[in-house]
Amino acid sequence: MNRIEKILEFLNQQPKDNFLRHALALEYIKIGEDLKARDLFIDILEETPEYIGSYYHLAKILEKLQDKSSAIEWYEKGMAAAKLAKDDHAYRELQAAYEDLVY
Model confidence over 29-69: pLDDT tens digits? Predict the structure, then answer.
């Protein structure tokens, strides 16, 4: 059984587990299923905006899909969420990626 199948099996038991959904999205990225990854990250963040780790990956996928305005929007949302959570490391990582894209 491959990693995606294993994660999907776990998700059948815990469908709203953000760690598992995030892991599945990362696996989708590895195999070039960027749209599936994007949709999973969006689902996670719309349901749980404080799940900081998904903002960076979602925005990077959007950049790859050449959706710059959406990438900027998600970087900004991620920076706001990281600031609220007092997660300085995530904030700096998001800010650096944001600045690379915008400037």
Answer: 999 999 999 999 999 999 999 999 999 999 999 999 999 99
Return the domain boundaries, the chain. 3-102
Domain 3-102, what architecture? Alpha Horseshoe (1.25)
Cα–Cα distance for residue pair 83/47, rounded to 1 Å: 19
Q: Which residues of 45-82 are buried (b: 16+ CB within 10 A; e: fewer)?
A: beeebebbbbbbbbbbbbbeeeeeebbbebbbbbbebb
Residue in 20, 47, 72 with CA at minimum distance from that of residue 58 = 72
Q: Is the pTM of this model over 0.85?
A: yes
CA distance 42 to 36: 10
